[in-house]
C-alpha cells in the first residue's frame, strides 16, 4: 500500500526533474570555485568611495565599494603575466549577452585558436552561453578610449582564482550579473 509520504515524494521526484534541473545547473558553476572566491561582504581600508571598483589581480579579487570601509568582494580570473591591465579606467558601456571578437593581438598570439576570426575579419561570435564574455560585460575606457579590457562573465568557471585570460577580468556569470545591476556607466575602476 502506498502511504501519503511515498505518494508525495514520488510525485515531486517525477515532476521535479524539469523544474529542479535549472537551479542545479545554475548552482554547479558556483560549486566549482573555492569558497573564498564566493561573493562576501568585507571591511576594507583602501581610500575608495562608494560605487567604485577596486581589482587586485594578484589576489584574484574584485571589490565593489558599498560604503566607506565596506565592500562586496568577488573572486575573479585575470590576465596571464604580461597581458593584464593596470591603472584606472571608467565603465563606458555595458552589454547583456554581448557578442565578441578577439583583438588582433589575440589572433596574432594564438592563430590556431582564433583561425575562424583571422579568416573572416568581420565575424563576431554571437552572445550566448558559449561566448567567452559570458552573460554580461562591462567595457573599460581610459581617457575616453576603449582599452579592450572587460569585466565579464565566463563559460569556464574553473578559471576563477587563476591568471589565465588574455587580460580581461572574468567572473562567474551569476556574479557578473549581480555586479552589472549594481554599477552604472561612469563607474571608476582601479586595477592595482
Radius of gyration: 20 Å
Identify low-pLDDT runs.
1-27
General form: globular
What topology, given as strand order, has the largest sheet?
Answer: 1-4-3-2-11-6-7-8-10
Which structural class do the helices and strands define? alpha/beta
Mean pLDDT: 80
In what range is the share of β-strand residues? Answer: 25-35%
The portion of residues assigned to helices is 25-40%
Number of strands: 11
Q: Helices and strands, in N-to-C order?
A: HEEEEEEHHEEEEHE
CA(first)-CA(last) distance? 67 Å
Q: Outline of this structure?
A:
With 192 residues, this protein is α/β, with parallel strands linked by helices.
Descriptive account of the structure:
This protein is of the alpha/beta class and 192 residues long. The chain is built from 4 helices and 11 strands. It has helices at 4-32, 104-109, 115-119, 173-182, and strands at 40-43, 53-56, 61-67, 70-75, 78-79, 87-96, 136-142, 145-152, 163-165, 169-170, 188-191. The strands form 2 sheets. A 9-stranded mixed sheet has the order 1-4-3-2-11-6-7-8-10, with helices on one face. A two-stranded parallel sheet has the order 5-9. A hairpin with a 2-residue loop joins strand 7 (136-142) and strand 8 (145-152).
Amino acid at each position: 500500500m502506498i502511504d501519503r509520504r511515498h505518494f508525495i515524494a514520488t510525485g515531486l521526484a517525477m515532476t521535479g526533474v524539469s523544474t529542479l534541473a535549472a537551479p542545479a545547473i545554475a548552482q554547479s558553476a558556483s560549486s566549482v570555485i573555492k569558497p573564498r572566491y564566493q561573493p562576501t561582504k568585507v571591511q576594507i581600508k583602501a581610500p575608495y568611495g562608494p560605487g567604485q571598483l577596486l581589482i587586485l589581480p594578484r589576489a584574484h579579487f574584485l571589490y565593489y565599494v558599498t560604503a566607506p570601509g565596506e565592500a562586496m568582494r568577488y573572486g575573479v580570473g585575470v590576465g596571464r603575466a604580461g597581458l593584464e591591465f593596470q591603472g584606472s579606467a571608467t565603465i563606458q558601456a555595458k552589454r547583456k549577452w554581448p557578442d565578441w571578437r578577439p583583438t588582433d593581438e589575440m589572433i596574432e598570439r594564438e592563430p590556431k585558436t582564433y583561425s575562424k576570426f583571422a579568416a573572416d575579419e568581420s565575424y563576431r561570435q554571437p552572445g550566448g552561453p558559449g561566448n567567452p564574455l559570458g552573460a554580461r560585460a562591462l567595457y573599460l575606457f581610459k581617457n575616453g578610449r576603449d582599452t579592450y579590457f572587460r569585466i565579464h562573465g565566463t563559460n569556464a568557471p574553473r578559471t576563477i582564482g587563476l591568471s589565465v585570460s588574455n587580460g580581461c577580468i572574468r567572473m562567474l556569470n551569476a556574479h557578473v550579473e549581480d555586479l552589472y545591476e549594481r554599477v552604472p556607466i561612469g563607474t571608476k575602476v582601479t586595477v592595482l
